[in-house]
Amino acid sequence: MFLTTNACDGKRDCIKQCPTKAIKFINGRAFSCLTCGICYKNCPNGAIFLNSYGGYVVDRAKCNGCGMCMYNCPTNNITIEDGIVYGICSRCGVCEEVCSNRIDGYKLEKEKQLNFIESLNILYPPMENVPHKSESKTKEVTRSYFGTDYEKCVLCGRCQEYCPTGAIHVNIDRDEGICSECRICNDVCPNESMNKLQIVNKSSCTLCLNCMKACPNNAISVDDFEIIVNKLNQKPTGFIVSCLNCGLCADLCENESLKKVDGKLRYDPTVDTENVTHDIATESCPVNTLRQDDEIYIYDEINDEELPTLAGFCVSCGKCAQVCDETHARQYMTHSWDGSVSDDCISCGICVEVCQEEAITLNRGSITVNLDKCILCENCAVHCPVDAIAKTTRYKNEIKDGFNFIEQELCMHCGLCHKICSYDAIDEIDGNYVVNEEKCTYCGACKNACPARAFLFERNFKDSIEGI
Fold first, then answer.
1. What values do phi and psi take at 86, rounded to 5?
2. CA 104: distance to chain centroid?
3. What is residue 51's three-state secondary structure?
């Protein structure tokens, strides 16, 4: 909810600007919808929904004007005019922008909220019957994981080859057949004829071809009874992405075959005999390392079929850090976040959409994070189009294309979409608001701000890696 302080000057600017007419003037001060959700719970048509801002919005395509929301509103704030429901706060924040005496009630302590509202003495039924949003007491969330110091990493791929679950992906911008200096040839040589610089001691080499078989890049060959290593003295470009050990896959695992025990992921493939897919978990992996294992299958005797198992999750064995003994780029790290974002936030709401833990609420120009729910999966940061949220991974999802259209019969002509668009992609033509497809980036800020749900909107992402 948004509240008015005692300094209210009675100019009613907030009332004039509110797109849903959710603010009234009572006893000399502005009073608005409590966003208690009682209208949402009592709507028989499912026409009221909770939006990304934590407010409530009427879907005019579903609303039939029955008035149940109006009759159940504890503050008599809801009215119906010409078949359109008004008086429900969408928490768009416009009132706070136009009036310095308006404050976001969710930022206050719960006790102060109750004292203020009860002092107005206009509630019926009593205050104890009205639900309130609880505030997180956690000041910071922390996650431990095996990560990469990108300044030290030489993209040799050694960690990837030794990861037992395939939770590390190293991609080098080079053609196959060129040595990446991973030193696996040195590890497997039985006579120590291949040193760490990939130089062969011809006198001791027995041409066992162990190095050629083990080379992950097919960079070793034989010519005239001699081992040849195809090297390129040039620093490679590329990226390295690994499991974050966030535990999101465990939270979304349908049959609990994947769990997080003492902060470490553990998997029991025998539980997968229940024939439950892992589609939700794999599709929601923030860095796209979780996948179906191509090597291990569980045989289902009842249905006479082989069931797939999982791969691509970190078990915190530390092998990657052990084998990265030259540069020490792989390390056991700790990442913390207090829920803050940079000023670059454009209120697009993508972070709210992709957060599987429902830990984020959208504000105008920022977000509020329930740190009690956040597991630091970085899904929000991976999808953020303006990089307003800090992240530790190099993995990135970018908006590829989409579709955006304003249904004029639903549009309330409030202009919120026009005001919030950071790309000037909403044009006002003869009193109507239309989308400029040439400028639109499909971020979704306009859709999230719309109190009438008038946008027909779709968006597609593509995988992209920073630095390529």
1. -125, 165
2. 24
3. coil
Q: Where are the beta strands (DSSP E) in 131-236?
A: 141-148, 168-172, 220-222, 227-229
Instruction: Indicate the pLDDT class of residue 20, thresholds 50, 70 and 90.
Output: very high
pLDDT for 467: 44
> CA-CA distance, 95 to 89, in Å (whole number)?
11
Beta bridge partners of 162: none
Q: Which distant-in-sequence residues (6+ apart) come within 8 Å of 417 by Cβ? A: 406, 426, 433, 445, 446, 447, 449, 450, 455
Question: Tokens at residue 126, please?
Answer: 């009593």
Are 91 and 2 spatial neighbours (Cβ–Cβ below 8 Å)? yes
C-alpha to C-alpha distance for 334 and 320, rounded to whole angstroms: 16
Q: Tell me, what amino acid is at 384?
A: C
pLDDT in tens, 199-214: 999 999 999 999 999 9
Residue 397's closest CA among 437, 367, 354, 333? 354
Q: What is the pLDDT of residues 286-329, one digit of tens each?
A: 999 999 888 887 776 667 777 788 999 999 999 999 999 999 99
Question: Using CA atoms, how far apart are residues 366 and 342, in angstroms rounded to an integer?
Answer: 8
What pLDDT sits at residue 110?
53
Cis amide prior to 286 (ω within 30 degrees): no
CB 178 within 8 A of CB 217: yes
3-state DSSP call for residue 350?
Answer: helix
Check: CB of residue 48 under 8 Å from CB of residue 58. Answer: yes
The residue type of 57 is V
User: How would DSSP label each residue in 102-160?
Assistant: EEEGGGS-HHHHHHHHHHH---SS-GGGS----------EEEEEEEE-TTT-----HHH
What sign does the CA torsion over 414, 416, 417, 422 have? positive
Maximum C-alpha span of the chain: 98
Which residues are CB-neighbours of 354 under 8 A, at least 6 positions away?
Answer: 379, 380, 382, 383
Nearest CA among 465, 454, 458, 415 for reference residue 440: 458
Q: Cα separation of 295 and 299, whole Å?
A: 13
List 458's β-bridge partners, or say none: 403
Answer whether 158's CB lies under 8 Å from 322's CB: no
Residue with tokens 């989308």: 435
**Helix, strand or coil, per DSSP, at residue 431:** coil
pLDDT at residue number 468: 41
Residue in 381, 301, 388 with CA at minimum distance from that of residue 343: 388
